[in-house]
Design brief:
328 residues; alpha/beta; single chain; 7-stranded mixed β-sheet
């Protein structure tokens, strides 16, 4: 088969579409003929040599895919050859075939085409696990989403609104904020022109955000704590603003607040399976009825993966950037 390989870490030109050995479905796995994958910031880090796959995972980038099951390994039930699926991966989505643990498979939701389905698994799993399973967002609370126009952000806005929360977002510029508003965001904050702490306080009568979903890390840590409400929860899922910062523990304790920091890729199979099962139970019905919809910015053929990476690096996109994969 063909897959994107990274022989030497570097810029987008390091992505090479070439012949590689076929994967095999092992115990508890299925083999998926990939129709599409999606570009995530973790793929950019892997290309640069900063985020290697966990032991035993495919060396090829790609943390999610959609396609059809072509083979079923030992110990798998509930799936059949030919089923249209999308999947959460530890790697390998940028390829014509990928072996997937059965617990990380999802059926393609009703009303979503096979290619577009590749945009859903990573964002849905990340948002549901952090905002709902860990931070416990409840109806009537306020959710602040940093990077509201990203793939994660567009999913978080819609899920927050679906459960009855008030949703505030930060994004860069009026066009991105307008797209966030179309998805249901109630409070629009241009981080280039406005202080999100002041804006979220003003929008909540001084109370602050009950849950903050943060992609920035160190750069926003102090201001995020200031922006939290009493009993607030800060969920850190990205480090685009650095890895080290000072934390005022007195401020955190004064608010009886909590900070969690998670990644999805390196979690044990059992944890990923539990998250995927929760997504299927809680998120998939919302997608199937159209209350939550995938947001796709642009689709490229896999042979143009370098250009897709450039789009993500430029942060000019709203929603997900997809890669279509030809049949093997």
């Amino acid at each position: 088969m063909h897959a994107i390989t990274i022989e030497q870490p570097g810029g987008p030109e390091a992505l090479v579409w070439t012949d590689v050995p076929d994967p095999v479905a092992g115990e508890g796995e299925v083999l998926v003929e990939v129709a599409a994958s999606a570009v995530n910031r973790a793929d950019l880090l892997q290309r640069q040599g900063f985020y290697n796959p966990p032991p035993g995972a495919s060396p090829h980038p790609g943390l999610e895919c959609s396609g059809r099951i072509s083979a079923i390994g030992p110990g798998v039930s509930g799936w059949a050859v030919g089923d249209e699926v999308c999947a959460l991966l530890s790697g390998g989505g940028y390829a014509q075939r990928v072996a997937v643990p059965a617990g990380q498979l999802l059926p393609v939701p009703a009303g979503v085409d096979l290619v577009t389905a590749a945009s859903l698994p990573e964002a849905a799993a990340t948002v549901w696990s952090n905002v709902f399973m860990v931070a416990g967002l409840r109806p009537g609370e306020t959710l602040l989403v940093h990077g509201g126009s990203s793939g994660i952000g567009t999913m978080a806005i819609q899920l927050g609104k679906a459960v009855g929360a008030k949703v505030a977002v930060t994004a860069g510029g009026p066009q991105k904020l307008a797209r966030c508003a179309e998805l249901g965001a109630d409070v629009l904050i241009d981080y280039r022109e406005q202080d999100f702490v002041e804006e979220i306080k003003a929008a909540t009568g001084g109370a602050g955000a009950d849950v903050i979903l943060d992609i920035m890390g160190a750069k926003y840590l102090d201001r995020n704590v200031t922006a939290l409400a009493v009993n607030g929860r800060l969920a850190v899922i990205g480090l685009q603003g650095g890895v080290k910062a000072e934390l005022n523990l007195a401020a955190l304790m004064g608010k009886r607040a909590a900070i969690t920091a998670t990644t999805l890729r390196a979690r044990p199979l059992e944890e990923k399976a539990a998250i995927v099962a929760a997504v299927r139970e809680h998120v998939w019905p919302l997608v199937s009825t159209g209350r939550v919809r995938p947001v796709v910015h642009e689709t490229f053929p896999i042979t143009e993966a370098a250009e897709a990476h450039r789009v993500l690096e430029a942060s000019s996109h709203v929603g997900k950037v997809l890669l279509t994969v030809p049949a093997a």
